[in-house]
Design brief:
The chain is α/β, with parallel strands linked by helices. The chain folds into 3 domains: about 5-85 and about 170-180, D-Maltodextrin-Binding Protein, domain 2; about 85-165, Periplasmic binding protein-like II (D-Maltodextrin-Binding Protein, domain 2), CATH 3.40.190; about 195-280, ACT domain (Alpha-Beta Plaits, 2-Layer Sandwich), CATH 3.30.70.260. It is built from 10 helices and 15 strands. The protein has helices at about 15-25, 35-45, 65-70, 105-110, 115-120, 130-140, 150-155, 185-190, 210-220, 255-265; strands spanning about 5-10, 25-30, 50-55, 60, 75-85, 85-90, 100-105, 125, 145-150, 160-165, 175-180, 200-205, 225-235, 240-250, 270-280. Strands 1, 2, 3, 4, 5 and 11 form a 6-stranded mixed sheet that branches. Strand 1, helix 1 and strand 2 (about 25-30) form a beta-alpha-beta unit. Helix 2 packs parallel to helix 3 (about 65-70) and helix 6 (about 130-140) runs parallel beside helix 7. The protein is elongated, with a radius of gyration of 21 Å.
């Protein structure tokens, strides 16, 4: 069965690769220019699933996507980690020595800083998407302009790979979420897995009292629930107050998790479960 999937960027992007890992090969992609457009496409029913990057081992969290996820009301139904391998990609007749300009997403450019520093004759320019940069340089056919993107983008747009694995650090992974509307079949299936294989993501706002965050986190420690991530984000409209995003290595069907969340609800101003899904 073909699944309609929204991604940010063009065909051949890392998001498309992540979607393939998460959902299989039969995908009907809805390519969006921005993450805001992606969440809008889901709201309008143009796709059944959205696949979005949420954090990178080198660049950290994509904070805007945390904000959009909370606003959307979508549910996390799966996660995957994708190894990010950057290539320098040129036009069909390009040679590495010719390149004077390179286009890519700003994060990709930052992750290849050492490569670019060694080649001072190449000027980096930011674009909205790695794969979109390849599409542009192939279309323009200027042998002096290249792009930084993944191998899949080079194959899809018939670009020429001039250099591989140009990223500064090989331990470069991006975590992606699959997002669906609440109550999806995938979410229901995940909850039936054994507890050892599940992860739960939540977001909460603490009360403005001394030791509030300590009290909130202690509800998990008291029940031997391990936390794999905690992230704070500013609470819009309330200066110096924060939302806390937390990942639990436990499923919502477990009694200890249910008790912890009930306890947390009593001592917070706001609590939402963002999803329960298979851990990777």
């Amino acid at each position: 069965m073909t699944i309609k999937v929204a991604i940010q960027g063009e065909r051949g992007s890392f998001s498309e690769q992540a979607a393939g890992k998460l959902l299989g090969a039969s995908l009907d992609l809805v390519c969006c220019g921005s993450f805001a457009d992606l969440f809008s496409a889901m709201k309008l029913g143009k796709a059944r699933v959205a696949v979005v990057p949420i954090e990178n081992t080198l660049a950290g969290s994509l904070h805007r996507n945390y904000d959009l996820l909370l606003e959307s009301g979508l549910e996390i139904t799966a996660e995957t980690n994708l190894r990010i391998e950057h290539c320098l990609i040129g036009t069909r007749n390009a040679r590495l020595q010719q390149i004077r300009t390179v286009l890519s997403h700003p994060v990709a450019l930052e992750q290849c800083r050492k490569f670019l520093k060694r080649r001072r004759s190449i000027a980096p320019h930011e674009t909205y998407d790695t794969a979109g940069a390849v599409q542009q340089i192939v279309h323009d056919a200027n042998p002096q302009v290249a792009a930084i993107a993944g191998l899949a983008a080079a194959k899809h747009f018939h670009g020429k790979v001039l250099a591989r694995n140009i990223e500064d650090n090989r331990e470069n992974f991006t975590r992606f979420f699959a997002l669906e509307r609440p109550g999806s079949r995938r979410a229901r299936s995940a909850r039936r897995l054994s507890a050892e294989k599940l992860k739960t993501s939540i977001v909460f706002i603490t009360k403005n009292v001394p030791g509030a965050l300590f009290r909130c986190l202690s509800v998990f420690a008291l029940r031997d629930i391990n936390l794999s991530k905690i992230e704070s984000r500013p609470l819009h409209g309330k200066p110096w107050q924060y939302l806390f995003y937390v990942d639990l290595l436990a499923g919502t069907g477990e009694e200890r998790t249910q008790n912890a969340l009930r306890h947390l609800l009593e001592i917070t101003e706001f609590l939402r479960v963002l999803g329960c899904y298979p851990a990777v």
